Amino acid sequence: MCACAFALVGCRLDIAVDMVVEPDGTGTVTVLLTADSELVAAVPNIADELATDDVVAAGWVIDGPVETPGGGLSVSLSHGFFSAEEATNLLNSLGPPFNQMSMTVNASGDDTTIRLNGLLGLPDGFESFADDDLITAVGAMPFEAEIAAAGVTPESSMGATIRATLPGDIDESRTNGTELGEGRLEWVVPFDGTIDDWRAVAVQSPGDDRWWARPLSVIALVALVAWVTFMTFFIGYVAWARWQRRRSRTRPVG
Q: How many CA atoms lie within 13 A of 196 on its CB side?
């Protein structure tokens, strides 16, 4: 419910998620949280009150908080992954506005296809941050009256983007992110109550990062054929020479 608390003091929280996928399917998820100067002014000791023990225990590496040029604070969290399943778990651990996130890797022949899927947004506004058990226990969404009185909305108090850098060629027909170049894509998360699809497909072929592999394999094949041919003639010559030697020894004299 930190987003609701931010809304109560009329400040803004910006979230930037950056996902980098390497050609072997490993990678890193980095999350940058930035609170503006209004929040820092309203809660001067916010840096000291950040609870990071659970985050660190989950394997995230924390950098900050550090002061921004505008007088706010930013915190960076990063976590590596070694499989598509682990990447999926990391993305889903972020919670709203990143919903039903997944990464899959499939191989077909020589090609490897990486797919990203998910839903971006807060369809229920600030209530999206509160689980059903909490609402049932409290009887209502926490801070509901205060948020209504302040007149703030997720759209006015939050912003979020998610970027992904994928290896191989981006399939534009199955990708709805904005291309930034060099396999990097960006999506802006809506906070107006709508939900956007998060879709990307990249196809990685053997030649994408190994242009030298095919000519090298041809050279190796030619060398192998030449070696086999040479050895065949050499062995044949040795056998013929030995046969000639034996024949000369057994030939009668006179």
A: 20
